[in-house]
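For reference, the entry.
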Amino acid sequence: MNVNYNLYLVTDERTPIGELLSIVEEAVQGGVTIVQLREKDTDGLAFYKKAIHLKALLKSYQVPLIINDRVDIALAVGADGIHVGQNDMPLSALKRIVPRSMIIGVSAQTVEQAQLAEKNGADYIGIGSAFSTKTKQDAIVLPKKTLKAVRDSVNIPAVAIGGITLENVQQLKEINFSGIAVVSAIMKAKNPKEAAKKFINR
């Protein structure tokens, strides 16, 4: 699958399913190119229901669905990919259970983590936190030079994540990211479609 990481939407789990589908659809119409369903504290059934509906919606727009952490949910709904953090299942184990066609993303905060992810076969990495964020309270903000060093250490696509807004996105312009991952700036926008359009035209 030829994946466009340019505008990567990560969902907010506090969003009820009806509202979630509406926001995501508007965001995709505005230019979002890939969507990650992130549900850290949601039980399996509720996560599955959100995933199955989101998969159907995104399929109609030919936009890939990535599931955060939960391999079982990703496999059950036929998601396009899975994204894991440094404390989740190791990439080597993950690759034994998911189809070869599945996109695998890994969060990285250091050059070593990024290079190991690439070596072990990750399709892309998420680097952050780029800025302070309320979405992930324990996130450590990486200095610009660290973001650049981690980005430049690999040849696979790399997406900046963490506290990215329309006000600060320009600060990342000199780093050659394949895309940016956005949560609140689209999920909480009054008009998600317009917000996405502005990020596309950044």
Q: What stands out?
A: The chain has one domain: 7-200.
